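Task: sequence design from structure.
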């Protein structure tokens, strides 16, 4: 994770290899030498002809200043010698020093600057091959004094020490190109004006020298300007800014709208019987962890329609803590606690409001007065920062004691198997079709929020008994609950998006590393009751875990962001993510298996908060946390007006599943849980 300047450099250095940089340099030199090896009488004749053509063009344009400068320099032995050495050395030294300095001090910008240097040289070498041109001093009839040959300057250009140099490579002038590249690079990284000024003086001196020594025409310098500028522009296009928002993360910026805020997070319930859970303690806790939460002190910088935004640092002293960590008191006017319904309404209100994009995109809401000895914390980050599992991982930085999540191992197939499975998965995705059932949605950002709790041991026991997965039970609760709470909704097969993790165990908390895979669940009354619904859902969901669809979905998401320009990627995101493709989101995530605390108050429950996708009226997330399967439900009021009725219906479905099997123990889902 990033955070101080030294840490940032270390992170960028980790992605750079000095051996690779050396190989790139050798490759450029080899390409230059290859063109030099093409030397022949025919190329020499063409080079002389091209040199005369350029000289005649300059005369016609009245910019042929080289003869006058050459005549002035030739009689001054000391200046002539200094000019020869300047011509032979300073462009090399300045470019080499700039590259080394960028590598060591600005590794975050090094890759772009190096790429511009490479493109510039490749363009120049290609020009040497296609348009060989002799320097002015080779034209005997033009009357130039060859200061290199006459001065016998040891090691200078054209002397025996550098006989390997391409003598037919005057257009463009690499001496000007390299010197100017340094100035452009310094300007791009916004170096001090003093250093930039020194570099510009060097460019001006080099421009004088190349013409006064009759090594180049003025138009050769113009050619150098062209290759430098083209190199800089191409490098900007082909080099990903390390702080640029990756395509899978930017996806959620594109799909967000005023009525579909894209926040992920969690609602935690805390026991305040032995701790005040003071607002100022929460602020202090988060402030102390900023170095471990890079996106908490970064904001988005938008750079136009054709480029993805990038993360930029904000001044930590300017973080608006009153906005990021607000305090709400839910106590009623009569002094009694507001209750969980009031808390759920607060969550729905805040989670439905899009974050302003001129500040770090996170909030932690402190809520007092929930119940006697109960307070709450609402942790939200924008989906551009992380997926659900990444959000859980980030939240662990502000909880104690320190806990490292143990993610389930990911089976990574070999390259050939992976390619084959991805190909099969793409074919499967292509046959998925479109939703058969469309649920009602509203035109506003209003949403309801509620929670359901199931003892984790009991839920796992039910899953083993019925030979299904916890996700199957969760989807049955959603489908059965909607069938009860929204009986007027269309019946049939409801298309559900199920996010599956493709996150490596060592991945950073930031970033979206999930793949959405589709399944269908039956909506409406079922012959055979909820056990029959569970059996059908289990049968239909088996394709979720084959791996091929997950690989294909992940590939498609990343390929779209790589291949398509930004406007095309935004169109793709809005096309594939929403009610036209699926009608519900159901996610199940792992969490800690021990009690953690926040600002001294122990957590009793933690519920995930998932955003509603555009034109998708329900999103349900489950989190296994310290002995509970805690379920968070976001629902559009157009589908279910009162979210609490949906929670009650989901409990009824779970109770039926539990009671319908061979084990007739009383369900514990409602045992001692009150309204939570």
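Answer:
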């Amino acid at each position: 994770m990033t955070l101080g300047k030294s840490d940032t450099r270390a992170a960028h250095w980790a992605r750079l290899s000095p051996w690779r940089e050396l190989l790139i340099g050798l490759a450029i030199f080899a390409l230059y030498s290859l063109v030099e090896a093409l030397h022949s009488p025919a190329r020499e004749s063409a080079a002389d002809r091209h040199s005369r053509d350029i000289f005649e063009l300059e005369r016609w344009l009245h910019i042929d200043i080289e003869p006058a400068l050459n005549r002035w320099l030739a009689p001054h032995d000391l200046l002539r010698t200094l000019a020869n050495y300047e011509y032979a050395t300073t462009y090399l030294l300045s470019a080499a020093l700039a590259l080394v300095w960028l590598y060591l001090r600005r590794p975050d910008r090094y890759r772009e600057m190096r790429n511009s240097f490479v493109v510039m040289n490749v363009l120049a070498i290609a020009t040497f091959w296609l348009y060989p041109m002799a320097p002015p001093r080779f034209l005997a009839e033009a009357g130039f004094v060859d200061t290199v040959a006459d001065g016998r300057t040891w090691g200078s250009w054209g002397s025996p020490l550098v006989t390997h140099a391409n003598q037919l490579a005057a257009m463009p002038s690499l001496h000007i190109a390299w010197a100017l590249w340094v100035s452009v690079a310094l300007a791009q990284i916004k170096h001090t004006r003093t250093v930039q000024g020194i570099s510009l003086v060097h460019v001006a001196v080099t421009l004088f020298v190349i013409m006064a020594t009759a090594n180049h025409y003025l138009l050769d310098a113009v050619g150098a300007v062209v290759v430098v500028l083209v190199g800089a522009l191409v490098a900007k296009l082909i080099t990903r800014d390390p702080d640029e928002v990756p395509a899978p993360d930017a996806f959620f910026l594109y799909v967000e709208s005023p009525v579909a805020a894209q926040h992920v997070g969690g609602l935690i319930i805390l026991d305040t019987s032995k701790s005040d859970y003071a607002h100022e303690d929460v602020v202090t806790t988060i402030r102390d962890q900023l170095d471990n939460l890079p996106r908490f002190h970064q904001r988005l910088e938008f750079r136009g329609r054709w480029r993805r935004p990038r993360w930029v640092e904000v001044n930590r002293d300017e973080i608006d803590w009153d906005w990021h960590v607000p305090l709400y008191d839910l106590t009623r006017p009569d002094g009694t606690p507001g209750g969980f319904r009031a808390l759920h309404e607060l969550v729905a209100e805040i989670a439905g409001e899009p974050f302003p994009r001129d500040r770090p995109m996170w909030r932690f809401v402190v809520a007092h007065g929930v119940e006697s000895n109960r307070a709450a914390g609402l942790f939200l980050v924008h989906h551009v920062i992380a997926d659900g599992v990444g959000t859980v991982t980030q939240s662990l930085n502000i909880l104690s004691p320190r806990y490292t999540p143990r993610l389930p191992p990911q089976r990574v197939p070999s390259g050939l198997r992976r390619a084959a499975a991805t190909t099969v998965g793409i074919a499967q995705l292509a046959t998925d079709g479109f939703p058969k059932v469309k649920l009602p949605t509203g035109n506003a950002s209003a949403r309801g929020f509620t929670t359901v709790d199931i003892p984790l041991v009991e839920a796992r026991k039910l899953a083993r008994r019925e030979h299904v997965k916890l996700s199957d039970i969760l989807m049955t609760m959603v489908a059965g609950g909607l069938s009860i709470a929204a009986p007027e909704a269309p019946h049939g097969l409801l298309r559900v998006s199920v996010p599956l993790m493709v996150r490596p165990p060592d991945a950073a908390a930031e970033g979206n590393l999930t793949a959405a895979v589709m399944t269908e669940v039956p909506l409406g009354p079922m012959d055979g009751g909820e056990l029959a619904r569970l059996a059908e859902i289990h049968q239909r969901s088996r394709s979720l875990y084959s791996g091929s669809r997950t690989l294909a979905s992940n590939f498609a998401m990343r390929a779209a962001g790589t291949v398509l320009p930004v406007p095309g990627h935004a169109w793709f995101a809005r096309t594939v993510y929403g009610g036209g493709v699926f009608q519900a989101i159901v996610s199940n995530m792992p969490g800690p298996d021990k009690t953690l605390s926040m600002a001294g108050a122990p957590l009793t429950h933690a519920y995930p908060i998932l955003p509603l996708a555009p034109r998708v009226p329900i999103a349900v997330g489950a989190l296994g946390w310290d002995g509970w399967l805690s379920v968070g439900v976001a629902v559009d009021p157009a589908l279910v007006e009162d979210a609490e009725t949906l929670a009650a219906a989901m409990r009824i479905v779970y109770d039926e599943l539990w009671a319908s099997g061979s084990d007739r123990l009383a369900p514990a889902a409602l045992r001692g849980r009150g309204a939570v």
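The longest strand covers residues 362-371.
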